[in-house]
Amino acid sequence: MMQLSGEDIEQMMAEVRQSHAELEQAAAEVEALTSTVTSKDRVLSATVDAHGVLTDLRITGQSWRELAPKELCSRIVALVSQAQQDVQERGQALLSGLAPDGVDPAAGLPSADEMAAMMQGLVAQFGEAPRER
């Protein structure tokens, strides 16, 4: 069974704390994301938040009045969908590469208590660290 020293465990804990801080920062950046998509004719624009929720819809000019209601709705839905896809891709790009193997950062960050429990599990798996004298 592998034995870890107190120094090894401290180093591992420091790395975990650093990773956790980086993930928290990236999560905050993802949470602040928005995406605005404007139609080619600049008549419609839709903005969504980080969760893909529509937060703003703008219709400018008068040319939209010439559209059938179904066509107008279809264009709005397409813009919102495009904005949702954009914000999702940007969020994934911010989080990619930050999480350790087997952890999906999009699923949420482990709490500090969960991280400590994971470390305690590793210590238990690899054996107690000898006490420093």
Summarize the model shown:
This protein has helices at residues 6-31, 69-95, 112-126; strands at 34-38, 44-49, 54-59. By secondary structure, it is α+β, with helices and mostly antiparallel strands.
Detail the topology: elements first, then pairings.
Blueprint: H1 6-31, E1 34-38, E2 44-49, E3 54-59, H2 69-95, H3 112-126
Antiparallel strand pairs: 1-2, 2-3
Helix pairs in contact: 1-2, 1-3
Task: Describe what you observe in this structure.
The protein has 133 residues and is an alpha+beta fold. The protein has helices at residues 6-31, 69-95, 112-126; strands at residues 34-38, 44-49, 54-59. It has a 3-stranded antiparallel beta sheet with strand order 1-2-3, with helices on one face. The two termini are 22 Å apart.
Could you tell me how far the N terminus lies from the C terminus, measured between alpha carbons in angstroms? 22 Å
Rounded radius of gyration (Å): 24 Å
Most strands sheet: 3 strands, antiparallel
- Average pLDDT score: 81
Form type: rod-shaped
Count of DSSP-assigned helices: 3
Number of strands: 3
Q: Would you identify the regions where 5 or more consecutive residues have pLDDT less than 50?
A: 129-133
Helicity range of the residues? 40-55%
The helix-strand sequence is HEEEHH
Give the structural class: alpha+beta
- Strand residue percentage: 5-15%
Strand order of the largest sheet: 1-2-3
